[in-house]
Amino acid sequence: MIALPTRSGKPDSVLAKAVDLARSVVLEAADGDEVGEHLGAYAEGERVVTHHFACTTPGYPGWHWSVTLTRAKRGKDLTVNEVVLLPGDEAIVAPAWVPYKERLQPGDLSPGDLLPVEDEDPRLVPTYLVGDDPLDDDDRAQVRRVAQELGLGRVRTLSREGLDMAAERWHAGSGGPDAPLAKSAPDQCWSCGFLVRLNGSLADRFGVCANGNANDDGRVVTVDHGCGAHSEVKLARKQQPLPMPEHAFDTLTDDDLESL
């Protein structure tokens, strides 16, 4: 047996020696050919020791059986706390769980799908909070009810954090200055006649492409983005298509062909 000290100190000697008891507990949960050698014991706390046994089950390399034992002070009776199968450092395990909402990507929503926004979403603030006149809680609730009943505008609007997150995402995306399309463009969007500027605080950095022939048509682009469909782009003489030759006039007739 290999005793492995931990931050909790040296394992309790009585519990550390109870290898046979720990193995018998594992054999109640697994077949004999699924339990390998004893890998050691270490202290979980005062008079609490965990034994590890190698797992030989096919498909579980790097896993081990873990049995935790404990006893009362000056007591001789040992108690089994738990027995579990755990992965080691080199075990093959499933990736960490990511909630469905966080796994969604643009384009994943289908017709009829709903993606509700949390009440405390930092990207949004109540519209009635935007302004110079702060309201107390009762007044805010009243204004919100009245606005909803009368249909007066949006209940929430973008916060400063929401605007910054959108700006960072658009700048780093396919409509930003570092996109391959922009790197090879003859000019930037700020001088293109098809750029429709956004309103508000993002107007000096972003716009929407309105060129139906461009890859970014209908998408947000940075003013320093660009593409080959710029409104002022001109083809150099060497880039222009070669003129087609004149049509050949065929003087032969069907009779002439037959006489040949």
How would you characterize the overall build of this protein?
It comes from Nocardioides potassii. This is DUF3027 domain-containing protein. It is a single chain. The chain has about 260 residues and is of the alpha+beta class. It is built from 7 helices and 10 strands. It has helices spanning about 15, 20-30, 100-105, 135-150, 160-170, 180-185, 255-260, and strands spanning about 5, 35-45, 50-55, 65-70, 80-85, 125, 155-160, 195, 205-210, 220. The strands form 3 sheets. It has a 5-stranded mixed beta sheet with strand order 1-2-3-4-5, with helices on one face. Strands 8-9-10 form a 3-stranded antiparallel beta sheet. A hairpin with a 6-residue loop joins strand 4 (about 65-70) and strand 5 (about 80-85). It starts with a strand and ends with a helix.
Secondary structure elements and pairings:
Blueprint: E1 3-4, H1 13-16, H2 19-29, E2 35-45, E3 48-55, E4 63-71, E5 78-87, H3 100-103, E6 124-126, H4 137-150, E7 156-158, H5 160-172, H6 180-183, E8 195-197, E9 206-209, E10 220-222, H7 254-259
Parallel strand pairs: 1-2
Antiparallel strand pairs: 2-3, 3-4, 4-5, 6-7, 8-9, 9-10
Pfam family, one: DUF3027
Region (Disordered): 239-260
InterPro entries: DUF3027
